[in-house]
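Hi V.,

Quick status before I head out on leave. The structure for the redesign project is tokenized and pasted below; the design run finished overnight.
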């Protein structure tokens, strides 16, 4: 499996390539980042690193054997022992269990490195793969939610009951 690494400045070139190569693939199931994200990528990266340094978010990349970014997996809006989990896997790496592995690993990091006790997540109803990953990794449905006008589900995982 690839290595999960906290986001760093030197990830920028590989991360931008990952985002550009997978833009259409991601937009099929989650809202597109928009042209501004790519035009101001360095600025957006600096903002994310500042949020990470402040402890408001924990951003990670999945780095493959050739130092390529195969995915992102993040904990955002960290507060009161909880955070929102988000992840995206490159199209060429999808379907091999990478997302399930990465979510399990990040749950472990969330509990043991970051001291979190609960994670929230969500996905659209039409994203069967993401729903399956969340279910396989111990998340349970706790409600309905909208994602840019698309129906979805909210999930929760208590890390004190199932730390991995």
């Amino acid at each position: 499996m690839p290595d999960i690494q906290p986001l760093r400045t030197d990830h920028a070139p590989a991360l931008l390539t990952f985002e550009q190569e997978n833009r259409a693939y991601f937009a099929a199931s989650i809202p597109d980042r928009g042209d501004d994200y790519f035009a101001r990528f360095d600025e957006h990266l600096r903002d994310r690193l500042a949020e990470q340094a402040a402890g408001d978010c924990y951003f990670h990349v999945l780095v493959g054997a050739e130092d390529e970014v195969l995915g992102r997996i993040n904990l955002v809006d960290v507060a009161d022992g909880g955070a929102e989990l988000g992840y995206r896997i490159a199209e060429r790496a999808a379907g091999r269990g990478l997302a399930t592995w990465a979510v399990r690993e990040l749950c472990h990091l969330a509990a043991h490195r970051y001291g979190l006790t609960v994670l929230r997540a969500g996905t659209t109803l039409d994203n069967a793969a993401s729903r399956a990953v969340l279910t396989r990794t111990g998340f349970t449905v706790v409600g309905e939610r909208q994602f840019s006008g698309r129906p979805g589900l909210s999930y929760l995982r208590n890390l004190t009951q199932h730390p991995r």
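Above is the designed sequence. The beta strands are 3-6, 58-63, 69-79, 82-89, 118-124, 140-147, 150-158.

G. will cover questions while I'm gone.

Best,
W.
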